[in-house]
Amino acid sequence: MTTTKGLLVMDADSTLVQEEVIDLLGEEAGVGQQVADITERAMRGELDFKQALEERVATLKGLPESILDKVYARIHFNKGAKELVDELHARGYKVGLVSGGFHETVDRLAAEIGIDYVQANHLEIKDGVLTGRTYGDIVTKDVKVEKLRHWAAENGLTMDQTIAMGDGANDLPMIQTAGIGIAFCAKPIVREQAPYQITEPDLYKVIEIIDSVKE
Fold first, then answer.
1. 6-10 and 162-166: which strand pairing?
2. Dmax (CA) of the chain
3. Which residues carry out catalysis (predicted)?
4. Which of 85, 98, 93, 116 lies closest to 204 in space, CA to CA?
5. Which CA distances in Å does 65 have to 5, 82, 127, 154?
């Protein structure tokens, strides 16, 4: 049995990928600006995330399930995503995604580049149509911390052996809990409080941070 050397847990929207998937769904629903405004306020920490998510998902009521394929085609990985995951795997690390986005798209992203763990929200779909609701537990900032700890424990790792990265206020507790916490092209509140920063959209820079910390 191979021993896991470390764990990276990151956010999906605006971290692993360039877009905010909920905003793309909002555009398809014809309420793009309204949804984007709520997202922006939630990311800055001005709104309760759960409430903001419910408000945004409600605007998607009545959209056909096929909208998810349409939106998936518009998502782009940030530079260095696959290279980062491959390099971490080569070094004996596991990689997880904790997203306030949706399993319906995040699972596909994870599968595409070989990510080990995923936790996200579920959109409720009935008879091929979005109901405007989610089901199951909502991924809040506390859940992000919980997953970081859980996946670390599952691999016999201490917090010192973990890395967490994200861009929004929802990611801050997780970033501050990990051994190496990284703000990725982040909102001001996150940049001010995260121990490490990546200011250009290149995920492979995580490797530079890991190597500099180990020196």
1. parallel
2. 56
3. 11 (nucleophile), 13 (proton donor)
4. 85
5. 40, 28, 9, 34
Count Cβ atoms below 10 Å from residue 50 Cβ, excluding itself. 16
Residue 21 phi/psi, 5-degree rounding, is: -60, -40
Q: Which candidate in 13, 23, 116, 171 is catalytic? A: 13
pTM across the whole model: 0.94
pLDDT tens per residue, range 182-203: 999 999 999 999 999 999 999 9
Q: Is 11 a catalytic residue?
A: yes
Q: Between the CA of residue 171 and those of 29, 99, 112, 113, 165, what are the distances in Å?
A: 27, 9, 23, 22, 7
Query: How many residues in the chain?
Result: 215
Residue in 11, 23, 167, 171 annotated catalytic: 11
Q: What is the pLDDT of residues 113-151, one digit of tens each?
A: 999 999 999 999 999 999 999 999 999 999 999 999 999
